[in-house]
Amino acid sequence: MSLGLRGLKNAPEAISLLVSQLFARFPFGMLSLAFVIHIQAITGSYAVAGIALGAETIGASVSGPIISRMMAKYGIRRVITLATIVTVSALAALAISPPEPVLLVVIALVVGLSSPPIQPAARTIYPQVTPKNLLKSLYSLDATAQEIIWVLGPLVATLVAAQFGNIPMILTVAGIQILGTTWFLANKSVGKAKIPKSEAAVGRVLKNPHVTAVTFIGLLLVGSFAGVEVGSVALFDKAVAGLMFAVFSLGSIVGGLALGPRIKSKFALPIYLAVMLLGYALVLVDASNPYWVAMALFIAGLGVAPSLGALSLWIATNTSGNETAEAYGWTTTGQLVGFSAGSALAGIGIDAVSAPAALLVSIVFGLAAVIAAIYAVRNLNPATNLSS
Predict the structure, then answer these.
(1) What is each CA distance from 9 to 14, 57, 141, in whole angstroms?
(2) 329: containing domain
(3) Mind listing the pLDDT tens digit for each residue in 21-69?
(4) Rounded to two decimals, what is the model's pTM?
(5) Which tens digits make up the pLDDT trace of 262-294?
(6) Do 222 and 362 lie in a common domain?
(7) Please, which residues have CB within 8 angstroms of residue 238's CB and are 6 or more apart in sequence?
C-alpha cells in the first residue's frame, strides 16, 4: 500500500526543495500577464505585447534543454545564479526601456533565453533525496503545488499593477525571482547534488523513446490548456474568465491530492487524461453558461496535475543520471511549444468560426493526448508506479 502524501514527512529535504523551487518559479506565473500589461501600457499596442510574449516563449523553448544540460558541466548553483542575474537584469531593462517595439521584443527574448532552469534542477534532485517508494507521491504533490503559481501569479501581477503601476509590477517580478532563487540555491541538497556529465550531443537524449513520448504528450496536454484560456476570454469578460482559470486550477489541485496517489494502474496516465478530456467535452454542452463551464473546467482540471506528475515520474524512472536534466529541459520546451500552437489555433478558430471553436482546440489536443498516452504505455511500458 502506498505511504501516500503523509509519508513525505520522511523526506524533509525533498519537501524543503519543493517549497523553495515553487517560490523561485512563482515569477513565471506572473510573467505572461506582466509582459502584456507593461508593454501595452507603454506602447499602446497589444500586438507588440503579444509579439514580445511570443519572443520570450521562443527564447525559453530554445534555451531550456541547453541550460539544463550546462548544470551537469558547471554545477547547478553556478548555472542558475548566472541565469538569474541575466534574467533579472533584462527585467530591469524592460522596466526602464523606452517604448521601442524592436528593443522590447529583444529584451523579452533575452528574458526567455536566460530563464533559470529551476524545475529541471529540482526534478533531477528529487530522486537523490527521496525514498523510492515516495517518489510517486512527491511528483504528484509537485505537479499539484505548481498550480498555485498559475492561480496566484496573475492575481499578484494584476494587484501590484493596479495599486502601484506597471513598472513596479515588473520590478516585483524581478525581486521575487532573486529571493526565490536564493532560497532554492540555499538548500543543502542543491549544493550536494551531482548531475553526471553527458558526452552525447545536445538532443541525443530524444533518442530515448520515453523522453520523446513524454515531450510529445506534454506538448498535447499543455496545448489543450490554450483552448480553454483563449476560449474563456472570448466567451466571457476578463473577470469571469479569470475565475474560470482559477476553477480549472482548483480542480487540478484537488485531482493531484485525490487522484494522483491512488490510481496505480499501468494505464493511470491515460485515465487522468481521459478525465480531463471529459471535462473539455462537457463545456460544449452549454458553453454560454458560466456556471456550467466552471463545473466542466473543474472536472477537466482533476486530470491535469496527476497527468503532469505521471509524466515527471516517467522521466525520472526511465532516464539515466547523465540525461535526466536535459530530458526535463526538453519536456519543458515541448510544453511551451504546445501552448503556443494551441493559442494560435484557438485564435484562428475564434476569428474564422466563433468563440466556442477555441474549445474544440482543447478537445482535439486532449483526445490526441489520450491516444498518444495509450500508445506509449502499451508499447513502452514505462516504470511509473513506485508505490509499495
Answers:
(1) 9, 36, 13
(2) 200-383
(3) 999 999 987 887 788 788 888 988 777 877 887 788 888 888 877 887 7
(4) 0.73
(5) 666 778 899 999 999 999 999 989 988 989 999
(6) yes
(7) none
